[in-house]
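Quick entry between incubations.
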Amino acid sequence: MEIRKTALAGTLESSDAQVTVSPGDSGIELTLESSVMNQYGRQIRATVLDVLARLGVRDCRIKVVDKGALDCTLKARVECAVFRSNGISAGKVPWGGDIR
Amino acid sequence: MIPRPKPERFRLRRTMLFMNAQKPGLIKDAYIYGVDSIMLDLEDAVAENQKDAARFSLYHALTAIDYGQTEVIVRINGLDTPHWQEDIRCAVAGGVDGVRIPTCESAQDVRLVEEHVLAAEREFGVGEGRTLIMAALESPKGVLNAPEIAAASDRLFGIALSAGDFHRSMHTHYVPGGIELNTARSLIVMAARAAGVQCFDTVFTNLDDEEGFEAEVRMIHDMGFDGKSLINPRQIAYVHQTLAPTPKEIETAELYVRTYREQSQRGVGVYTVNGKMVDIAFIKDADRVLALAKACGVYHGDL
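Done. Structure below.
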């Protein structure tokens, strides 16, 4: 999947994460800010990269501001941002397929 | 994916707690409150431009969080919106226990949702017939059609009054004592009982008015409601306590069941206990009280 335009999902509330994706041309450029960076930075990074790989996103700039989100929330926010950037977040979403 | 047990159409549903499906902080530990059912809301709690994000969040919550014995229902958006069909796909794919139809006005509405639920069960390989349905009655038309709605589907486990919109369409507002909802409540309980499904009362929104809340819980219990929708975890305990049979009720029920067994073996159908007439009609109710006491965890006898 390509990143067609800048898109954002999530909030800065506690237990949430705000994810912004925008088009890029040299692989995945991930910027991560987290309130639990020391404890979970590596795991958050791995989850984000894993979701992008699953969605077939090869080039994008992605910024994640994490406020202590669980893994399932993080996944939901990254997926939603990617689907929004393609204008396909509102219907016929592949639940259980690419979204899992 | 956390496998959820097959939903039971009829189970204990004293309390149903509303939660915004878009708020991770709320839904991640919703099961700790000991509520019978949680209602993950895609409708009014979610802003129009966040409907898509709420579904991603919902799908992962359903598949990743272990809710244990707590029933998980999803309130979909209204049938007059562009959202409800995708809401159903998402909830069913995530293995939800049931969906709640907001502003349900006819048996046709229930059947329409049922069709889409079945289609989603097939699309996602979820067991056919697994997903339950409940209908919220929020308009005069919905309340007046309660009998046909309550009997519309084998998946439907209950009907619920939702007073916010009902108040508006009736040109009235919350009144302590509930005179303005009197007819609606009565019709809903009667329609539910006639169709053999459950019925649930509306939310009580003023968290500071504890006395008003408690009076309302006692009233709807006396009217015969099975449970109540809630907006705050601190409302749970009082409902559970009030809806459980009292020690006195349990004692009477036990006495009726025991004496009825003895009497019927002797060929007697009607007799008196402590000056009160008892026959088979009392025994059915006594059985119901004992079943409810067991489900509420307050029965310690051996019947």
